Amino acid sequence: MAADDRESAATEARAARETATRLGATPLLQRLDALIRRGRLAQAAADRSLALTARGQDVLRLLALGRSNRQIGEELYITGKTASVHVSNILAKLGAASRTEAVAVACRKGLVSREETVG
C-alpha cells in the first residue's frame, strides 16, 4: 500500500473509531481496533512526531492502566526513577501537562484503546 493510501486509510479508520467511541458502540470499536492492528494502521494514524520507542509504548500502556511510576518499574523490571523518565518523555512527546491528559491524548491519537485504560 502506498504511503498516501495508508495515510488516507488511517485517517478514515481514526474517524470511524472516534464515531464508534462517541456512540458507545463497544463491539464496533473492538472490531475497528482489530482491523486497525491487522492493517497496521495504528502506527500511520499516530502523529509522526511522536515516535514512541517500544519501551515508551509499554510505559504508556501501563500509564493508561493507572499504574504509578513504582508499579510501572516493578512490572517492566526497571527502577521507579527510570519509569519516571519514560513518563516525562511521553508527556513531552504528547504535549500533555499531566498523566491523565497524556492518556486522553493517546486515546484520541489511537495509541491506546479505550479498553486498555482505567475506568
Characterization of this structure:
One of its GO terms (biological process) is regulation of DNA-templated transcription. Keywords: DNA-binding, Transcription, Transcription regulation. This is HTH luxR-type domain-containing protein. GO terms for molecular function: DNA binding. The chain folds into 2 domains: about 1-50, no CATH class; about 55-110, Winged helix-like DNA-binding domain superfamily/Winged helix DNA-binding domain (Arc Repressor Mutant, subunit A, Orthogonal Bundle). About 70% of the residues lie in helices and about 0% in strands. With about 120 residues, the chain is mostly helical. The termini are far apart. Helix 4 (about 55-65) crosses helix 6 (about 80-95) and helix 6 packs across helix 7. It has 7 helices and no strands. The mean pLDDT is about 80.
Topology, element by element:
Elements: H1 3-23, H2 26-38, H3 41-45, H4 54-64, H5 69-76, H6 80-94, H7 99-108
Organism: Streptomyces curacoi
GO molecular function, one term: DNA binding
Domain HTH luxR-type: 45-110
